[in-house]
Amino acid sequence: MGGVTVRVPAKVNLQLAVGPLRDDGYHDLVNVFHAVSLFDEVTAAEPDRAGAADRPVRVRVEGEWAADVPASDDNLAVRAAAALAARAGRSYRADLLIRKTIPVAGGMAGGSADAAAALVACNELWGLGLPLPDLMEIGADIGSDVPFALLGGTAVGTGRGERLTALETSGVFHWVFALADGGLSTPRVYGECDRLRAEAGAAVPWPRVSEPLLAALREGDAPALGRTLSNDLQPAALALRPSLAATLRVGRDAGALGAIVSGSGPTCAFLAESAEHAGALAAGLKDAEGCRGAVTAFGPVPGAAPAG
């Protein structure tokens, strides 16, 4: 398949502070995103003439997680390409091929990453020349995590997470991701978070970024970063999937600098001292309860960009 191929990273949430439930059903967030070296690839190509008229944008999915990804108009990459064409005000067509490495429904924004990659690939394929801020604006209407997948690096997101400010970081951080056997629905996790909070009866504070976390990023201080990782959705994810507690415990006992559920889960993220330490952690996590495997990665890395 020819065309334009774009590589796009997964993300881990270093801090996810969830504010009170809003009238529109969303929550105000403070979300510190960190792009890591687990990548999907999306290729956009001009479609064959045969069968192109029925669906302007078609998609195929390959890779370990392909069976869990819809190859229909519900796919976020298809929706992103259609939104880009609508923004351009013309009828464009494309065949998309997604090569999946990022876990599906794993709290690492794999679907949003594919949407971001489709925006970049189709923008190039169709010769639109739209700048990054325009693509981020289109992406925000597709999903709250799409703008960060375009930006990459490390950034704090506010609002629903889509308003981004890049953060200063030093050095490289090494990670291990324990992949759970099965996924978790993001809306269900947020709903459980709201239920647990209502049950507790305490006032929900307005979300604020952690200053110690920002300092650890600026200084490249991995032990300090490990101590400041936080996720307000973690209690809800653990309530819905109790086996995650055992996974987190195995990683901590093996010397992880920090351990956290990534986003809405169920992927668990562990901060390591070095690449060698990450390899040892991954080996120890592969047999943890409810864990289908463990992979290593590093960050920060750039956002969606042409491969090659």
Structure write-up:
- Residues 75-153 form the GHMP kinase N-terminal domain.
- It holds the Pfam family GHMP_kinases_N.
- The active site is at residues 11, 145.
- It is an enzyme of class 2 (transferase).
- Catalyzes the phosphorylation of the position 2 hydroxy group of 4-diphosphocytidyl-2C-methyl-D-erythritol.
- The protein is of the alpha+beta class and 308 residues long.
- It has two domains: 4-167, 2-Layer Sandwich (Ribosomal Protein S5, domain 2); 173-299, GHMP kinase, C-terminal domain (Alpha-Beta Plaits, 2-Layer Sandwich).
- The protein has ten helices and twelve strands.
- Strands 1, 2, 3, 4, 5, 6, 8 and 12 form an eight-stranded mixed sheet that branches. It has a four-stranded antiparallel sheet with strand order 9-10-7-11.
- Helix 2 (110-125) packs across helix 3 and helix 5 (186-200) packs across helix 8 (234-240).
- The chain is globular.
- The two termini are 15 Å apart.
Write the layout of secondary structure elements.
Layout: E1 4-21, E2 27-45, E3 57-63, H1 76-88, E4 94-100, H2 110-125, H3 132-142, H4 146-151, E5 154-158, E6 163-166, E7 173-180, H5 186-200, H6 211-219, H7 222-228, E8 230-231, H8 234-240, H9 243-253, E9 258-261, E10 268-272, H10 275-285, E11 291-299, E12 305-306
Parallel strand pairs: 1-8, 3-4
Antiparallel strand pairs: 1-2, 1-12, 2-4, 2-5, 5-6, 7-10, 7-11, 9-10
Helix pairs in contact: 1-2, 1-3, 2-3, 5-8, 6-7
**CATH-level-2 architecture of the largest domain:** 2-Layer Sandwich
Distance between the termini: 15 Å
Helix content: 25-40%
Determine the mean pLDDT.
92
> How many domains?
2
- Percent of residues in beta strands: 25-35%
Instruction: Specify the overall morphology.
Output: globular
Number of helices: 10
Q: What composes the largest sheet?
A: 8 strands, mixed
CATH first level of the largest domain:
Alpha Beta
| Integer-rounded radius of gyration | 19 Å
Stretches with pLDDT under 50, minimum 5 residues:
none
Q: Please trace the helix and strand order, writing H or E for each element.
A: EEEHEHHHEEEHHHEHHEEHEE
